[in-house]
Amino acid sequence: MHLWPHWLALIVLTPLVGAALTPVVALIDRRTPTWWALSTMTVTSFAATMLVLRIFHEGPFSYVPGGWTAPYGIELHFDEFSAVVGVICLVGWLAVLFSSRYTDSLPEFARGRTPYYYTLLLLNCGGMIGFTVTGDLFNLFVFMEVLSLSGYALVAVGGERIAEMAAFKYLLMGAISSLLVLFAIGFLYGITGTLNIADVTARLHGFEGPTAPAAVALGMLVVGFATKAAVFPLHVWLPDAHAAAPSPVSAVLSGLVVKVGVIGMIRVYRIYYGSGMFDLTVLNLVLIWLGAISIVMGAFFAVFQDDVKLMLAYSTISNIGYIVMGLGLATTYGVIGASVHIFNHALIKATLFFAVGAIIYRTGYRTLTDLRGVGRAMPLTAVALSVGAISIVGIPPTAGFLCKWYIALGAFQADRPFFGFVLIFGALLIFIYYIRMVNAFYFREPVHAEVAEAKDAPVSMLLPTLVLASLCLIMGILGRVPLTFIEPGVARLLAPLGG
Amino acid sequence: MRAVDDSLMSSTAPVFAVLLPIAGAMLAPILGRTSRSARNVVLVVACAVTAALAFSFVPATMTGEIREAYLLRVTPQIWLHLRVDALGVLFGATVAGLWVLVLVYSLSHMADSHRLNRFYAFLMLCLGCMMGVAYAGNLLTFLIFYELFSILTYPLIVHDETPAALAAGTKYIVYILIGGSLVLVGVVFTYFVAGDQTLTAGGLLGSETDVGVLRAIFWCFIAGFGVKAAIVPLHGWVPDAHPAAPAPFSAVLSGVMVAAGTFGIARVVFQVFGIEILTHLGVMPYVAAFAAFTVFFAAVLAVSEDGIKRRLAYSTISQMGYVTLGIALLGAGAAVGALVHITNHAFMKGALFLCAGLLSKRAGIRSVSEMAGVARRMPWTMAAFSLASLGMIGTPPLAGFISKWYLGLGILDAGQPFYLAVLLGGSLIAAVYLLPIIYSAYFREPPSSSAERDDTESEAPAGMLVPTIVASLMTLALGLAATVPGSPLSLAQLAVDAFFR
Fold first, then answer.
1. Best mutation site among A343, A391, A403, A405 for testing chain B: the one with the most B CBs within 10 Å?
2. How far apart are the CA of B161 and the nearest CA of chain A, in angstroms?
3. Which of B72, B77, B140 faces A477 most closely, judged by CB atoms?
4. Does the distance separating the beta carbons of B166 and A443 come in below 8 Å?
């Protein structure tokens, strides 16, 4: 199947250029930025579709801008894990649509700042897309900074007093992790003399010099990306940042941006598994344990939150725990489960944040106590929220179940059944929160008149929420699509392990 | 490879039995907004057709035919598959039969309740999922429908939205989810070890598997299903959930939903492990001991309980102990008794809970101490109650006698006469906690304060009374017609023959 070769360049450039131009088009009319952002994301999504189709037919492929081949030029490389751009574009597109009404409710936007919000959102998506498709370590760092910096600003947009504090905390942790990653990339460049990921892997293979610098680089990369992914104990920045941000931003941050850390880890694994320099058993064991602690700790804290968004933020930590544990298990099923959950959790968490965002938009309240009875007032939104909650708990046959099933299988495959237990019981804690939510939303009398009289969300919010909620179900039933898709990628990643 | 494979027949009927109630559930809130009667008619028709489908499997099954349908292949490792074997037919017909009675009963019992669309929608969803449990052809299908109906039950338990109901609901869901998660661990583990998850008579797991692993899987399953089957000490949710739920729902909760746990245990024992491995593992005596303790412990608690529904709930725990005991003995006779007791108990306990609903609805009676003289006001209700009680105690020729007879023979066959004492003792205590209710209703003078109310309160309307009496008469019918081909007893025998071949 022949496809235009430049989609890979286009998917990176479109959101970045679109972001830069948003303030300019805003001069035309107040409403233009929304349409501009939407069309930018539409083009990007189309490019993403073409790329995913291409990898489906051809397998991984590269793009060399201007014909400058590695090691001189900067290579873009698209493999199965890069297909996450599909979900980035989908959630990003829906977040823009969701924001079109939501931004009206934010006081910050009263004075024409909306275009900058869209700029940041597009930059964030562009950064993520660049991060996932680049084949070059320095480029990886640059895109990580693009998405991190826009992320800090987007958190602060929330406007409440806590938002600035949360953004600052996020910035501080993010900056440290970025530095670590940058140093590590410097180390790797020093050792191998190249920044191309494939080249670094090849040159580290059979490397005969001292191995200590490569080990230090590995440590820094893992810590850096673990911070971005909010793995325990590096998670402290996440709950406030995700809860304080405007809801569509929370959906993007929680669903997508934390995954950057995980995808970064997969890239690191690709280098180090491929190079065969170290036996990574110890690192894997550490990751499994940290994953397990994240699952239980995140879920445990989530149960005690009254603020719905804070609960969702803690549940993200828990879910990142699943993914990290799956990666650490280093068995086929475990890594497949983790990779599929990168996709599925993005859909589920975005559903939840959109639904909660719509409820907050309509009622102005965000705690369980205040929101009593909202399920009857906003039935469709509440149903979407319920579907999302059931998925996040992993009740079959929703999307969340796949990850539980495969990572548990992976735990048995790795001969560590204990972690299968942890995984399955961690999800239970979250369900307790969900029961509290159902009780409050459906079975209690409203305490506020605004809640009792609220109407279902406006179409621009309801549509994204319902689309994602139905995807939570569809991706559960059509689980074989992402699964068979990611399988060759996982096999290639784990091939050097001889399994 | 296996003899049964010759008789496999692809069929879409089981799929309809699962989807039809779900379709009814979807329609309930839509129709309910415009016309209550249209909704009620559609629901009854959906439920009745489901029951007809469930009964239609009986003749073919008796000839040894097994219908199956592949629902969905989610991933190479996850697929849904329905397979209607004798055990499934027995349970499915029980579920659907009881559901028709309960649905008709609730139409008039719940008429003045709030949020009826929600109630009926979830009731029908539960029916669909229960049918899925009955006809599940592999472990994962079983698990999915089992988890779904367990969770969909929640809105029904908390239907009244009182603080007590919400508390009972929370307790229920926590227990059930822990149990469900244990089952999930067992299912994943089994799949990992066996590489397959189809439920077949010979057992899934091979005897070459490590004994420790087999024991781990076994206890995961037993503890998981034990929560639902209310094996002491995992029974905590039962006595709270039943009084909290609306009476018609208590009837199915007690009649078939608790039994779904024992049904799961039967599936695991006979079709995941198989007799040989379990005999070799030596775990079943422990299960039998737990079950025997359950029979006694719950029966004693029932005696000291004043609330009628709580007393009946403890009775359910005790009766389910019989079923678990019968399965745990690993003998053909005991297994037949256990499986047929699932059906017999469903109708007996269903009738009792429906009576309890009538008593509380028409006479405001919720505890045993208020029962004095009520038989004069509600003769039909009390007649139904008495018949079902006698069946529960095991009076010949009622249904309870049949199951206990087979259980007793099976116990002697298995060479463990001690459990015969459990069986008889349990029945004796059942008499102790049920007969005083009847005595009080018939022979005690009603308190003078209620004498004035006597004129205004009379027997329940036919809408509620007929299903109650039918459920109660089933006790008699299942006892008298036990030897007719196609009866629950014959189906249970057929199922057990396959397991013990």
1. A405
2. 6
3. B72
4. yes
Strands (E), B62-208: 66-75, 78-84
- Domain for residue A434, yes or no? yes
Domain presence at residue A472 = yes
Q: Give pLDDT tens digits for A136-192.
A: 888 899 999 999 999 988 888 766 667 778 888 889 999 999 999 999 999 999 988
- Distance from C-alpha of B27 to C-alpha of B36, rounded to nearest angstrom: 12
- Measured CA to CA, the distance from residue A374 to residue A381 in angstroms comes to 9
Structural domains in chain A (count): 1
CB contact (8 A) between residue A438 and residue B154? yes
Q: What is the pTM of this model?
A: 0.89
Angle ∠(A295,A296,A301) on CA atoms, nearest 5: 105
As a whole number of Å, the CA-based R_g of chain B is 21
* Complex ipTM: 0.85
Please list the helix, strand and coil fractions of chain A in percent, rounded to the nearest 5, in that order: 80, 0, 20
Q: Cα angle at B94 between B300 and B98, to 5 degrees?
A: 80
Q: Which of B74, B158, B166 sits opposite A479 (nearest CB)?
A: B74
Is residue B236 within 8 A of residue B172, CB to CB? The reply is no
Which residues are paired to A8 by β-bridges?
Answer: none
The H or E element containing residue A78 is strand A76-78
CA distance A177 to A152: 14
Answer yes or no: is A382 within a domain: yes
Distances (CA, A) of B383 to B80, B398, B401: 45, 14, 19
What pLDDT is attached to residue B451?
52
Residues 6+ apart with CB under 8 A from A25: A32, A33, A36, A115
Q: How far apart are CA A92 and CA A463, in angstroms?
A: 14
